[in-house]
Amino acid sequence: MSTIIPFPARYSAFALCVAGLAASLAAVLVSPHLWAAWVALAVFAALSATGVHDLRQTRHAILRNYPVIGHLRFLLEFIRPEMRQYFIESDSEAAPFSRAQRSLVYQRAKGEPDNRPFGTQLNVTIAGYEWINHSMQPTKLENHDFRIVIGGTPQPAEANPAQVCTQPYSASVFNISAMSFGALSANAILALNQGAKMGGFAHDTGEGSISQHHRVHGGDLIWEIGSGYFGCRNDDGSFNAERFSANARDPQVKMIEIKLSQGAKPGHGGVLPAPKVTPEIAAARGVRVGVDCVSPSSHSAFGTPIEMMHFIARLRELSGGKPTGFKFCLGHPWEWFAIVKAMQATGITPDFIVVDGAEGGTGAAPVEFSDHVGAPLQEGLLLVHNTLIGVNLRHRIKLGCAGKVITAFDVARMMALGADWCNAARGFMMALGCIQAQSCHTGHCPTGVTTQDPVRQQALVVPTKADRVRNFHRSTLHALQELVQAAGLDHPQQITAHHIVRRISDTEVRLLSNLVMQVQPGALLGPLDKQHNVFRTYWPLASAESFQPVTQGPHGLVSSLALAA
User: Fold this and answer.
1) In whole angstroms, what is the distance from residue 408 CA to residue 430 CA?
2) Can you point out the beta strands (E) in 260-393?
3) Which of 54, 319, 436, 556 has the maximal Cβ count within 10 Å?
4) Cα–Cα–Cα angle for 527, 532, 536, nearest 5°?
């Protein structure tokens, strides 16, 4: 082969470029007035120079072996996600959200009909398929504005009057989940908050605190307080009560939410690099411009479950009696049980708890954390709901949840598992125009949702997108109303695990109530012999005095999160 071809065939493209350069150079010399010859000369000169560079560079082995033509591989790889999304993948196969799911959000956000002809596209015979049972006597409801009251539940007689919730909040059962300014663009925050104002639902600030863009339209805010205490911190990053009270007493702030962890990367802190700490972000977070903004992995304001309960009571008092709670993604069960025991020991309970599923997360996170850290929403919600029932505290605490909730059936299913309301992040991002390009962390978001680039942000027109946010919320709740009516109920809170059916195999289906854990009221206050293994194993290890386990079992701490077993 080497005697027939003086150089490897993989250099053919480079050789053709050199030959073209020589030919075009000759053409220019012969006919200097011919513009096409000059164009060809410029093109082949650039390609030949690229080939020489490819042979000399040391970063890419493919380019050294395949000069010039090797760039085609990188081009095809660059456009592969778009080609797959638009031409190859089916409507139901993509992740994290399928084309069918995204189309539903787009249709509802635009106010377009979302009915589908010719029957379901789902495989109803596959294991895991679920449906809600309907009634022979459907109800007829006045409207779809389903609401719940958070806070204001009677406290024990010995409760400190100054630390009781005196400003309960009537919340929609479907709200915008936590997304910070900085992760989202200014225009995205403006549109989300205006949509929340128009639709009468709540907008969670995310741990980036309350920016000037949250305040423009006056939509209801849930102020999230993370471990960095942004918006209520001292210069050293510790909690500042005066700054907290000043923000928390703003009438626009309806609830206070302490973030213990998030589904995208539970147990992982974060750093916003100095170049990204703009004057706007610095003003919202209470940090210095151009200095690394550190979000620690844990809180400094408390170190034990009992201290956490007292911190919740303190924030409730400092806010003027507004509903105060916390958000977390379930991790070690004994830590959650320790928090519950601290509620029992102190008599202090949060007004609400938001359970974040590991499948959630709008921001970038390490792959290992996204894929393998934290409990999925179903398991986390079930354990939290049943634990509170087991210690007779469920009636005093409202439960929210978040994690891939975008359709009315998603909301209904989560309520069947114990939630009082649901939050959505990516669903509302798609209502803003997000196309799931998954470039959120690059600053190159094609729709202006997750970028700080002022030019890219201009693509997101606030009034138009605010309408879409409102439409998506309204249409989703209208669909929820129809599900509730079909089931013969009066409110989605009446949906239980007895209403949801899951296919187990080709020949077997079961009610969800027969598959998931269900604890009887007060059951954890007595012997644990007949309780689920997760309680028998981990409840004795939990202490209100510490997040650490009291002792290890004879075989070590073997996880038992298969709650449906």
Assistant:
1) 16
2) 270-272, 293-295, 324-328, 352-356
3) 319
4) 50
Pairwise CA distance, residues 232 & 323, whole Å? 18
Per-residue pLDDT for the chain (565 aa), expressed as one digit of tens each? 444 445 678 889 999 999 999 999 999 999 989 999 999 999 999 999 999 999 999 888 889 889 999 999 888 888 877 777 777 676 666 678 888 888 899 999 999 988 888 888 888 999 999 999 999 999 999 999 999 999 988 777 677 777 889 999 999 999 999 999 988 999 999 999 999 999 999 999 999 999 999 999 999 999 999 999 999 999 889 999 999 999 999 999 999 999 998 877 776 767 777 777 888 888 888 888 888 787 888 899 999 999 999 999 999 999 999 999 999 999 999 999 999 999 999 999 999 999 999 887 666 667 787 778 889 999 999 999 999 999 999 999 999 999 999 999 999 999 999 999 999 999 999 999 988 887 777 778 888 898 888 888 888 999 999 999 999 999 999 999 999 999 999 999 999 999 999 999 999 999 999 999 999 999 999 999 999 999 999 999 999 999 999 875 445 544 444 443 3
- Please name which of 286, 32, 306, 316 lies closest in space to residue 151, comparing C-alpha atoms: 316
Q: How many residues does the chain have?
A: 565
271 CB burial (10 A radius; 0-12, 13-18, 19+)? exposed
Token duo for residue 246: 């000043």
Please, are residues 169 and 323 in contact by the beta-carbon 8 Å criterion? yes
Distance CA 171, CA 344 (A): 27
Element (DSSP H or E) covering residue 176? strand 174-176
**What pTM value is reported for the model?**
0.87
Q: Supply the DSSP symbol for 416.
A: H
In three-state secondary structure terms, 455 is helix
- Does an H or E element contain 432, and which? helix 426-432
Residue 434's Cβ-side half-sphere holds a number of Cα atoms within 13 Å equal to: 25
Q: Which residue shows structure tokens 């389903």? A: 146
